[in-house]
Amino acid sequence: MQQGSITNLHIARVKETPSDPVQEATAISGMGLEGDRSCRKGNMRQVLIMDNETLSHFDLAPGQIKENITVSGLDLSQTVAGNVVFIGDEVTMEIVGECEPCGKMDAIRQGLQAELNHRRGMLCTVINGGAIKVGDNIRVEP
After folding, report:
1. What's this model's pTM, rounded to 2 decimal places?
2. What's the rounded Cα separation, in Å, for the pair 104 and 80?
3. b/e code 15-33 from CB counts within 10 Å (16+ = b)
4. pLDDT digit of tens for each residue in the chain (142 aa)?
5. Cα(86)–Cα(127) distance, integer angstroms
6. Distance CA 44, CA 93 (A)
7. Measured distance CA(16)–CA(6) in Å, rounded
8. Phi and psi torsions of 53, nearest 5°
């Protein structure tokens, strides 16, 4: 089991615009984060989790690559589809796979798409919803 904490939360309200930093968000079962453009039933790309350590390695700021949840203390490269993410006391998410870097990464910095290969974070679906906030504990279990 790996354990860390949430350092940043972002809601991407409108496509092609910067994500909004927030202090708290509501995860909705089977949908995603309330107010996020990816929050819809049947979407397998509901929430993107990224670790601060990888962002720092690539000299990126939290939210810059459109992740919803930025964490510290978790090595997301050690997680796989099917692992369960526990946030606080009530929220659970299932990792469905890694987020493949798209061409939008090169708009941030030329060559970033290739640099981030297998390191853009993990996509999740919300199993049990509830409130999440910056500072919450987060852990991943098989």
Report:
1. 0.96
2. 24
3. eeeebeebeebebbeebbb
4. 789 999 999 999 988 888 999 999 999 999 999 999 999 999 999 999 999 999 999 999 999 999 999 999 999 989 999 999 999 999 999 999 999 999 899 999 999 999 999 999 999 999 999 999 999 999 999 9
5. 10
6. 11
7. 25
8. -65, -40
Q: How far apart are CA 110 and CA 112, in angstroms?
A: 6
Using alpha carbons only, give the angle 112, 21, 118 rounded to the nearest 5 degrees: 30
Q: How far is CA 87 from the centre of its chain?
A: 12
Of 81, 62, 66, nearest in space to 122 by CA: 81
Tokens found for residue 60: 């990126």
Q: Which residues in the chain belong to E strands, given as ranges? A: 2-11, 20-22, 24-28, 32-33, 47-51, 69-72, 84-87, 91-98, 122-128, 130-133, 137-141
